[in-house]
Design brief:
This protein folds into three domains: 34 residues; 207 residues, P-loop containing nucleotide triphosphate hydrolases (Rossmann fold, 3-Layer(aba) Sandwich); 180 residues, Ribosomal Protein S5, domain 2 (2-Layer Sandwich). Helix 8 crosses helix 9. The N and C termini lie far apart (89 Å). A nine-stranded mixed β-sheet has the order 6-5-7-8-4-9-10-11-12, with helices on both faces. The protein has a four-stranded mixed β-sheet with strand order 13-14-16-15. The protein is of the alpha/beta class and 456 residues long. It is built from eleven helices and 21 strands. It binds thymidine-5'-diphosphate and magnesium ion (MG). Thymidine-5'-diphosphate (TYD) binds next to helix 2 and helix 3.
């Protein structure tokens, strides 16, 4: 086969060069040239007219309804399921469980009569079959092929005529007429481009797996975001069973839904009640522990913030924040020192959000500050209390959005009282609220409460 011609195009200015060079001659940017195939010149006419304008209300949407995957938490994030003709990237770090999730989704789709094709470009067909057996996912409508060359993949699509195709992963398939290595930006982009075109032509839904490194920089999901309809991100800690699925981009709905899974021996299981899971191991009466209702997208979650304060034996005390923003920890320590007159100068401070969850929203500030004061004083906070609010640099407390939803979740899990900023909305349901204007007042309210309990 004659080799198709390729050229090197600058990512920044669009200039093209016949050969790769380190610096673009157009904009003088370094390392911006990426190989691409030279497409045959388009014909001068647009061809025959095939699309027909319709009144907007007459446009048929039935055929484009999302197909549920049967994996509840994934359908929640996709807001219904996979839309025919759409292309979805499923990104995440290696080993997080992308192939497992994909197999479970395809099995679910196959069970509802959709023809599915799983193209495995990383593992052998035998490996995938063995995993499918463990997951109990061997429906007759699920086809499997192991291949890496894009022209072969397209031929398999032609042969199987699937409703849904999955390519695992986009970094390992390659177009032989490009000289760039598999996994390079040029290859990933070209392969994705072709699969997008085929998906739209056949009204076939595609899911492309993309590996991302810790900093999200690897050629792949980032280079594809603008090409595809939906970008899903699958996250979690390797050493914890919890996995979070979010939509980073979604053309067919909002990106506010969060899917939660637990990796088990039998694959990924949805977590219908995450707050209960996060709080399951909480020990009441331990100093340095406070519960905060946080919001991830639309989903309220209760998390336990823990702090440990100990005398430092080194000149620069340690400050560690796991699952929390270290910048916010530094800020809250500074506010406690300045506005609550609570010195931390010679103390090591360790803070975590228990259970391997990450939260960076300011709604957790007040709980973190109270956990710190409790740890420092060695006094446990009341265990029916939650705290929810942002701490400002002046020591003032600010309300966070959707306070009512957060507190409703706290009330559902049996918490009876909440410390909230004075400005929080009135009529908060199902829970007694303690309104405070500053962090100093919040700390005082907690210690008064402890004093009353001890006296009674
Ligand atoms: P995998 O889906 O292969 O991850 P990725 O495709 O993102 O690289 O799965 C990763 C890990 O999940 C693997 O180390 C084993 C574990 N695992 C389970 O714990 N239970 C299971 O049922 C399966 C299939 C995998
Ligand atoms: Mg995999």
């Amino acid at each position: 086969m004659a080799r198709a011609k390729s050229t090197y195009r600058c990512n920044a200015c669009g200039a093209s060069e016949p050969k790769w060079t380190g610096r673009c001659s157009g904009c003088e940017g370094w390392n911006t040239l990426v190989e691409e195939l030279v497409e045959p010149a388009p014909s001068s006419t647009a061809g025959p007219v095939v699309s027909v304008p319709l009144p907007i209300a007459a446009v048929d949407t039935e055929a484009w309804a999302p197909a549920p995957t049967g994996v509840g938490e994934a359908d929640r994030v996709l807001q219904g399921g996979l839309v025919p003709g759409s292309v979805t990237v499923l990104g995440g770090e290696p080993g997080i469980g992308k192939s497992t999730l994909l197999l479970q989704m395809l099995a679910g789709l196959a069970l509802t009569g959709r023809r599915c094709l799983y193209v495995t470009a990383e593992e052998s067909a035998q490996q995938v079959r063995l995993r499918a057996e463990r997951l109990g996912a061997l429906p007759p409508n699920l086809w499997l092929v192991s291949d890496t060359a894009l022209p072969h993949v397209l031929a398999h699509i032609e042969a199987v005529q699937p409703d849904v195709v999955a390519v695992d992963s986009i970094q390992t398939v390659y177009e032989p007429s490009l000289s760039s290595a598999p996994g390079s930006v040029a290859q990933v982009r070209e392969c994705a481009h072709r699969l997008v075109r085929v998906s739209k032509e056949r009204a076939m839904a595609s899911v492309l797996v993309g590996h991302v490194t810790k900093d999200g920089a690897l050629a792949g999901p980032r280079a594809l975001e603008h090409l595809v309809d939906t970008v899903l991100s699958f996250e979690g800690e390797q050493h914890h069973a919890l996995r979070l699925l979010r939509a980073v981009k979604h053309r067919f709905g909002s990106t506010d839904e969060l899917g939660l899974f637990e990796m088990t021996d039998a694959g990924l299981a949805g977590v219908p009640d995450p707050s209960a899971l996060f709080l399951a191991d909480r020990r009441a009466g331990t100093p340095g522990s406070m519960v905060a209702p946080v919001l991830d997208g639309h989903r309220p979650l209760l998390v336990e913030v823990q702090a440990l304060v100990a005398k430092s034996v080194i000149p620069t005390p340690r400050r560690s924040a796991q699952g929390l923003d270290s910048g916010r920890l530094a800020l809250i320590i500074a506010v406690l020192q300045q506005h609550v007159q609570m010195p931390f100068a010679d103390l090591d401070v360790h803070t975590v959000v228990a259970g391997g969850v990450k939260t960076t929203e300011p709604g957790v500030d007040l709980a973190l500050a109270l956990a710190l004061t409790s740890a420092r004083g060695g006094l446990a906070l009341p265990d029916d209390l939650v705290a929810c609010g942002e701490v400002g640099l002046g020591g003032e407390l600010r309300q966070v959005h959707q306070t009512a939803r957060r507190l409703a979740e706290a009330a559902r899990l049996g918490f009876r009282r909440a410390i909230v900023p004075a400005s929080a909305p009135l009529n908060l349901p199902g829970i007694d609220v303690i309104r405070v204007a500053t962090l100093r007042e919040a700390v005082r309210a907690c210690s008064d409460d402890l004093g009353r309990r001890r006296a009674s």
